[in-house]
Amino acid sequence: MADVIKVDDLAGEIVLAVRIYTEEVGAAIEEAVKETAQALAADLRETSPKDTGKYAKGWTARKEGPGRYVVYNKKKYQLTHLL
User: Fold this and answer.
1) In whole angstroms, what separates CA 5 from the centre of its chain?
2) C-alpha radius of gyration, the chain, whole number
3) pLDDT by residue, tens only, the chain of 83 residues
């Protein structure tokens, strides 16, 4: 049987449900962004020129803040503008 909620408590229950939903969606988005950044770095490692291999191996992803990742080349960062 469903829980009985008083009319006075309805607003609080709605806020609680929205807060739980927001946290779940935020966590899912954070995970999706992380996976996408890591996949992009892996794709760049695979498709970059491999003269010596150092440039291709340098691609990595770093977390910059909530829901924000930066994909960059930590070994040969001077050459990324050529891509």
Assistant:
1) 37
2) 22
3) 568 888 888 999 999 999 999 999 999 999 999 999 999 999 999 998 888 888 889 999 999 998 899 999 888 766 655 55
Contact, 41 vs 57, CB < 8 A?
no
Full-model pTM: 0.71
DSSP symbol at 53: S
Helix or strand (DSSP H, E) at 14: helix 10-47
The amino acid present at 61, given as its one-letter code, is A
What span, in angstroms and rounded, lies between the C-alpha atoms of 63 and 66?
8
C-alpha pair distances (Å), 44 with each of 19, 31, 37, 41, 53: 37, 20, 11, 5, 12
